[in-house]
Amino acid sequence: MTETTVTPERPLVVEETETKPGFVGQNVPRKEDKRLVQGQGVFFDDVKRHGMGYVHFVRSPYGHAKIRSIDVARALEVGGVYGTLTGDEVAILTDPFFELSTPPGAHIKDYALAVGKVRHVGEPVAAVVASSRELARDASELVEVEYEPLPALVDGEAALAEGAPILHEEAGSNVVWSGLFDWGDFEAARAEADHVVKIERLHFDRFSSTPLECSGCLVEYNRGTGQWTMYCNHQMPGVGAIWMAPALRVGIDKLRFVTQDIGGAFGNKICLHPQFVACCLLARKLNRPIQWTEWRTDQHTANAHGNERTFLDVEVPVKADGTMLGFSVRAVDDCGAFPRYEPLGCIIWAQVTPGCYRWRNIRVDFTQVVTNKSPVSPNRGYSRMQHLWLTERIVDIVARELGLDPVEVRKRNYVRTEEMPYETPNGCIYDSGDYARCLDIALELIDYDQLEERRRDAEARGKLLGFGIGSTLDSGTNNFGQSTLLNPELQFSGNNEVATVKLDIFGEIVVTLGTVPQGQGHETTAAQVVADILGCTPDDVNVRPGHDTYWNSHAGLSGTYASQFAVTGLGAVKGATEKLAAEMRKLASLVLGCSEDDIELAEGQARMKANPEAALPFMALGAILNANNAGLPTDLDITLNARYMYRPPFELPDKERKYGNLTLTYATQIHACLIEVDPETGGYEIVDYAAVDDCGKRIHPQIVEGQVHGATAQALGAATHEIFAYDEDGNLLTPNFYDYHVPHALDMPPIKNGYIESESPFTPLGAKGMGEGGGAGIHAVCAALQDALGKTVTRSCNPYHRVWELLRSEDRGVTVQAR
Amino acid sequence: MTPETARTIAVDVNGVSYEREVEARKLLIHFLRDDLDLTGSHVGCDTGNCGACSVLLDGVLLKSCMLLAVQADGTSIRTVEGLGSDGELDALQQAFADHHALQCGYCTPGMLMSASWLLERNPRPSEEEIRRAIQGNICRCTGYVNIVRAVQAASGQEVSE
Fold first, then answer.
1. Handedness of CA B97, B102, B108, B114 (dihedral sign)
2. Residues of A numbered 63-102 whose beta carbons fall under 8 angstroms of chain B's beta carbons: which are they?
3. Cα nearest neighbour of B144 on chain A
4. Residue A599: which H helix or E strand, with range?
5. Do A706 and B146 touch (CB under 8 A)?
6. pLDDT at position A97, please?
7. What is the rounded distance in angstroms from the CA atom of residue A418 to the CA atom of residue A441?
8. CATH of the domain spanning A183-208+304-481+653-818, picked from 3.40.50.12710, 1.10.580.10, 3.40.980.10, 3.30.365.10
């Protein structure tokens, strides 16, 4: 158990503008908590406006169909209905959203509402606005839509088959993007190997993090300025605006995003631009504020699933001693009906190409297709999780086939700590870490040395015991230049984040962030960093909650996504605070008549090092510049309002070789578990679980541990129950929390946490992003099931019925070729 | 289409009396949030599974999305806004903050009501009893680890490692 304390380990006096030990690294109380435990948080759905209209979307009941006609007349006759919007209007008033892909995906046309055709159950085809949400819902039942059903496509591999129904005729194919990634020399590795292990098919199932707060917005249109304000829970407003503004045919300054508290997002609130555009059009058309709150069923059927991926014809060359030389695979990624953030998932996995391993020869033939299912969006562990599941499946399947120990084979193949920073075959730089040591800690936490004893004990009770490991990397701080490996025409590269820190008139220290937190405690950790630099306490630092475009504290790539706040967000905070600190010293030196170097910031004062009695409280500095500045030199160029943009040190990757550093940091997660399976029913229980994480310098250990708990819970849910299953017509069979079972309190095993701190040499604070995890729990449970059942596990989600079937099925699909 | 039945109801919420006309079909959670502006209780699902809207009605824990507002006529309701006093946190709220039992805070109001109800009836619950008591409340952020610890701490017990 972690202790909560605010006493710094060392004095707070800071002599230079560097962050010294102080509040950073401690569990200070979270600034967010008081309002949230009192029910005084402000989530978008709490915001009301006079005369606002509630939107209800009329959604497709078909997986795939032509729209013959839409008639809203009867809905409009209802008293209290303010108006409607249809796809025909949207096609006139907006341009299709910008697509990231090269052809064929580039030709896909994606609008705010379906135009001419529906491509998944739940796709919005019209919108009805009324004086209450109940009335809007009732009236939407009166919208008459005539459909001509078409055959639905619900399988990624089938999408590639000759004669498959085509979703987007303008693309002429169901392929969004395809490409070959070939690093090292796979053929030579195969020739060098003593064995080649072949795996026919592995499938990573579709699920999502399903944040408890659904998506939504309250949109106001200012007719005088032509500007929309969106009180919302969009987690990546910078990129949201890049999609929305051109579609709405306005400049980006016409879109103002405002958030405060957000009820979880996990990547699932990145692709909200279609619904937001529909609300913007309605706010303008009806001249009133428009409120949209997604229903849970809509969130499951039509917002944002995680990528579903099939791995075919896996080949793994292995030496006699268990050294693996790499792998080759054909991957088919199913992104649902529209690409939206895709095809970025076709490259994001390459941040962790060899997983935790020293594999040098890797060939991936990657194809992404559309199907008649919900569109995907980034989902905690985005794209790397699917790939890391593959690398972990490879290790455990090879170990099983060749009779190798899963611990020893990992240690033999792990990248070693003395090799850090380590360059992967595709040019990514693993910054720091010690995977073998993390594994040892995990094994100790679950008493691995007593494994065989526990196995016998379980057998005596009629249970099958299984042991499994999940080794993953959470790569954080993207180099957006990786998008150019998909589409050389894209004009994105590097990364950035912005913060402002100012000293106000009564000495208030006010911080604004470009990030969009959803529970990660940004107000708290930002205050820790500021306090250490300015020589005050986190209580003295006021960090504005949420995000507001009007604060001007953001940049084009701002947001909270991709495990990066501890690097980009706090890097910006650190930079802005250091600028402010320099200005404060300069002003103090003028007032006290000494040199800037003679001034230190400590205990809420700027004071002379040699004579601490000669001191100016922060309040005096704030007041002098802001309100009482007569007599200051005319050439004094300070504002006490510092804005800083943090930019990580990235180069453009090599497009020809698909080579370069795609991300700045690599946090490690090595998890291990024991499960007990009831062979009669297929039911199983996780009886021991250890999570060892290494995210470099931990700014706030309690918050870090909380992120580990959450990522683990989501992974265990995905491993055991959570699956978005479709029938052959494209109906989602798990459209709400009744059918889609997320972990409840009784489902969660006790989690034993361990950590090490391998500081990143590349980041401002030695910290690494770590919020996503790499799905280690999924990989560990799959490995443990394989161990318990003695059968190859080929699916990522293994509910009890699948385990029961697996126990009774023939084990096939894996062959070993001796050379 | 327009509901023909609207009724005036009288409720006491967190010690304040309200008399309001409500549509017969209005859910209690929407009455609390939209009519009384008590937005601490949240909506996380359409099916009564998530528990973000949990309140105490005449001392009984229930999900306010599973009840019509008219059914609450004449009752006394306690929501998250009624915990603590004079802006100060009660022991359970403080334990949630101390033990990092919340991240995004969306499930927290419902979770606090479920845990409060448990502690009123069972001042020293076992870990199993705590997990059972919050079984009807979904949290997607914490894996429940620190929520269990917070309830243990609030009941003066040693927290689980």
1. negative
2. 78-80
3. A745
4. strand A599-602
5. yes
6. 98
7. 18
8. 3.30.365.10
A525 touches chain B (CB under 8 A): no
- How far apart CA A518 and CA A457 sit, in angstroms, is 44
How far is the C-alpha of A785 from the C-alpha of A766, rounded, in Å? 37
Q: Do B137 and A745 touch (CB under 8 A)?
A: yes
What is chain B's alpha carbon radius of gyration, rounded to the nearest angstrom?
A: 16
B140 neighbourhood in chain A, CB within 8 Å: 209-212, 264, 266, 710, 713-714, 742
Is A518 in contact with B38 (Cβ distance < 8 A)?
no
Tell me if A263 and B106 make a contact (CB, 8 A cut-off): yes
CATH of B6-82, one of 3.40.50.10860, 3.10.20.30, 3.30.43.10, 3.40.50.300: 3.10.20.30
Gap between the Cα atoms of B134 and A621, Å rounded? 51
Q: Do A37 and B105 touch (CB under 8 A)?
A: yes
Within 13 Å and on the Cβ side, how many CA atoms surround A268?
Answer: 29
Please give the Cα distance from A577 to A502 (Å, whole number): 8
A737 lies within 8 A of chain B by CB: yes
Mutation choice for B interface testing from A38, A259, A669 by most B CBs within 10 A: A38
Residues A425-466 have pLDDT tens digits of 999 999 999 999 999 999 999 999 999 999 999 999 999 999
- pLDDT tens digit sequence for A237-267: 999 999 999 999 999 999 999 999 999 999 9
